[in-house]
Amino acid sequence: MKAIQQESRVSSKSKTETTTIESSWHHKHVLDLDDFTSAEIELVFQTTDAMHEILSRSIKKVPTLRGKTLVTLFYEPSTRTRSSFDLAAKNLSADVINLAASTSSVIKGECLIDTLKTLEALGTDIIIMRHPHSGAPYVAARHVKAHIVNAGDGWHAHPTQALLDLYTIRGHKSSFKDLKVTIIGDIKHSRVARSNIWGLTKMGAGVTLCCPFTLLPIGLDKPRGQFPEVEIEPDIDKALSDADVVIALRLQLERQQSGLLPSIREYTNLYQLTEERLAKAKPDAIVLHPGPVNEDIEISSAVAHGPRSLINQQVTNGVAVRMALLYLLAGGSHQ
Amino acid sequence: MAKNIIMNAADIRRTLARISHEIIERNKSTEHLILVGMRTRGVPLANRLAANIEGFEGVNIPVGALDISLYRDDLSSLELQPIVKSTNIPVNIDKKAVVLVDDVLYTGRSTRAAMDALIDLGRPHSIQLAVLVDRGHRELPIRADYVGKNMPSSRHEEIQVRLKESDGIDEVAIIPVPAKEN
What we know:
The complex is a heterodimer.
Chain A: H1 2-16, H2 38-55, E1 69-74, H3 80-91, E2 95-100, H4 112-121, E3 126-131, H5 136-143, E4 147-153, H6 159-170, E5 180-184, H7 191-202, E6 206-210, E7 231-232, H8 236-240, E8 245-248, H9 264-271, H10 275-278, E9 286-288, H11 301-304, H12 311-330
Parallel strand pairs in A: 1-2, 1-3, 3-4, 5-6, 5-8, 6-7, 8-9
Helix pairs in contact in A: 2-12, 3-12, 6-7, 6-12
Chain B: E1 4-7, H1 9-27, E2 33-38, H2 42-57, E3 63-66, E4 97-105, H3 109-121, E5 126-134, E6 146-150, E7 157-162, H4 164-167, E8 171-176
Parallel strand pairs in B: 2-3, 2-4, 4-5, 5-6
Antiparallel strand pairs in B: 1-8, 7-8
Helix pairs in contact in B: 1-2
């Protein structure tokens, strides 16, 4: 009884101090998930829940970012990430400029920092950036005052994809604790896998990586404390055994010139996610894929379009997650 | 820092009973009525008003919850960013008489945000405002239709509303706050 009284007193005090509830958000940029806490990821989830309600309305627009300018600066092709950010920003009433390197002054030889400085001079508040070089968004963050969101840098990180994957998993599983998440495919070239490994391990899930050793990033097999601990299982049947979540990765065909695989056909025979192989996973296992899908290479059409596939749900969740991130970045003031 | 209790549990109960009667009287029929609580403490208040109306009239009034964070006009100047919660209105508000419910009416800016949020959800027949405490200091031309208690206050005071559902106790208190530089 005493304990209950004490607890209620503490909670009432903390709740009545101010009219606005303090959020635990302290990020000026979203570059990767390595510097996120599980509480911050949970805050993104809660905010995403609220954004989902807006997406269910007939008029999907709120005035939150009115007067803010957002630029999507893409040095690599993209369908879903870019249109998802575009839509998320428009739903929050921001003004959006879409810049693709292929149609901008980059073609005339303008360097990254000059392009960023130009965007800053135009009064840009948020820059969503995709770049083929790992670390490019970190350089950007040092040179401009705008908020930088990493929409994929080289092989390094794709934090918003990881957050939408985590959010999708959260919608189907009661908790991340003790989940077995198996990531299959081209881990070496996958920024999605790297950011997912950070996010999943921070939330308490166990991660198993399944790929030929030639497609495993150097150093991951011997964790040195800097990188989260993961299981490595090159045998797909063992890796899928009792899995709760399966993330299939795109085989990056454009990055397979250097003899890492004997042939695409051999890779397909050994690592394609098929219905027979998926039967080894738990009966309620779910399947994710960051897209775009190479059907019948890393995943069979039957699985990609099957009842366990959440590929389309990931895309829908992507808009809500990105709205949440834009709100969290550009909402309050940041010192 | 003396804390001055201006309403206790019995006061709050009687006040909400009176407001419930006023809502029924003014709207004549409860048929098109919907109560929408503004998060956080407007929601339990709206639930209590709905329970009262059910007790008096035997009708079940839909109750919704509205989060106004995304409609605030001061987002970029707030030091602490509000956490957005879901808005959850169970019925279509088109042609309904919507009673917005909040704990304290102060500058009127929250009410402005709430009206904008509601209008984005549909075209209600009317929007009315019910508050437990009106403390004055309006900055916008807004007034409440149903007021629990008029409580003239200084800007250097805080009106603290605590409710059983969120805080374990029913109480409204006025607390002096040391003056802050603007």
